[in-house]
Write a structure and sequence with these properties.
Number of strands: 10
Largest sheet: 8 strands, antiparallel, barrel
Oligomer: single chain
Mean pLDDT: 87
Order of helices and strands: HHHEEHEEHEHHHHHEEHEEHEH
Shape: globular
Radius of gyration: 20 Å
Strand content: 25-35%
Distance between the termini: 35 Å
Strand order of the largest sheet: 2-4-3-10-7-9-8-5
Structural class: alpha+beta
Low-confidence stretches: 161-168, 325-336
């Protein structure tokens, strides 16, 4: 479990993923060396990583939540194959290891044509994400409660006046592809590193990041092992809600501390959420008391999450190499 300084650092990075350690240290009233040391330790031991992500809507990308059922010996290989794709995020093994859930980002994707030909897959469904109420730029409350209001104001990036960004390119363009790719791998990459990766000058890279952030086209997310923040029991909740009450219910759920993601989708389950609770008893209490009190929720399917194979950003090189080279159309590895 993280201590007070660790939690404050995670909260600070969510407010500004590129905040200098010196500024974070001044707000937390600790030394810059302490912040740098804590950051390195959390990267090594808790999976901490800052990733820069393009807002899907502004980038013209559709988001699909894809659910696949597979025989147990094929599920893990299939999850790894999905995780290696550039157009996926949040690849999870759920329901006892026989279900894979992933988010696919693409203007048009051939993924759903490829998956049925994959050995071991027994069922496939795809749900278009219509609206995200919690997630992305909005942090899970469990990691955004460490700093007081004054500290949050000191760390929240200052938005440039409208006249200063007027006429700037607010949406990502092809020339931004290398910059966005570099930030997806490391949202805290130094300007010199970004310049080397993109061919831009450091000043140009800094200006373009500022333009995209100001317009909302680019945001920075924080990846970390949720168990370190008290979310040791995870579950995906697939709900069918009376359409007239869908928006109202979703906004209520977005304020629940137990949830890290809430979105309206197409399909029989028109609202999906991710729950993070300390233990199974806490999840049971949440389902029966807080969700149970919302009469507009007609049905609820709970899918326990066993493991997150891929979070928001691309797989790190070490994890990609360890996952092997199987593609979606390759046969699964032999069972034991």
């Amino acid at each position: 479990m993280l201590d007070e300084i660790d939690r404050a650092l995670v909260h600070a990075l969510h407010l500004d993923g590129r905040a200098p350690f010196a500024r974070i240290a001044a707000v937390l009233d600790v030394s810059t060396q302490t912040v740098a040391r804590r950051y390195r330790r959390l990267r090594a031991e808790a999976g901490l990583r800052v990733v820069g992500l393009a807002d899907p809507a502004r980038a013209g990308l559709a988001q699909w939540m894809v659910r696949l059922s597979a025989v147990p010996r094929a599920a893990q290989d299939l999850a790894q194959a999905l995780a290696r794709r550039e157009d996926t995020s949040w690849v999870k093994l759920a329901s006892g290891g026989t279900e894979i859930v992933a988010i696919v980002h693409a203007p048009q994707t051939m993924l759903l044509r490829e998956i049925p030909r994959t050995a071991g897959v027994t069922a496939v469904s795809a749900h278009y994400v219509l609206h995200t109420y919690l997630g992305g730029p909005t942090a899970w409350h469990g990691r955004a409660r460490a700093l007081d209001a004054e500290q949050q104001r000191a760390l929240t990036p200052t938005v440039a006046p409208e006249k200063e960004v007027e006429g700037s390119r607010a949406l990502p363009v092809p020339a931004d592809d290398r910059l966005l790719a570099a930030l997806r791998h490391d949202g805290r990459a130094a300007l010199a590193e970004l310049a080397a990766a993109t061919g831009l000058s450091p000043a140009t890279a800094a200006r373009r990041i500022a333009e995209l952030r100001t317009s909302g086209a680019l945001f920075f997310d924080v990846e970390i092992d949720s168990a370190q923040l008290g979310g040791g029991t995870q579950a995906l909740l697939w709900m069918a809600v009376t359409p007239a009450h869908l928006d109202e219910v979703a906004r209520v759920l977005a304020r629940h501390d137990e949830l890290a993601f809430v979105a309206a989708t197409t399909g029989p389950s028109n609202l999906v959420a991710q729950a993070l609770c300390p233990d199974p008893a806490a999840l049971h209490h949440y389902l029966t008391h807080r969700l149970g009190a919302l009469e507009a929720i007609r049905t609820l399917e709970t899918a326990p999450v066993l493991r997150t194979v891929k979070a928001a950003g691309p797989l790190a090189p070490a994890r990609r190499a360890a996952s092997g080279g199987r593609t979606l159309n390759s046969p699964p590895a032999p069972g034991p």
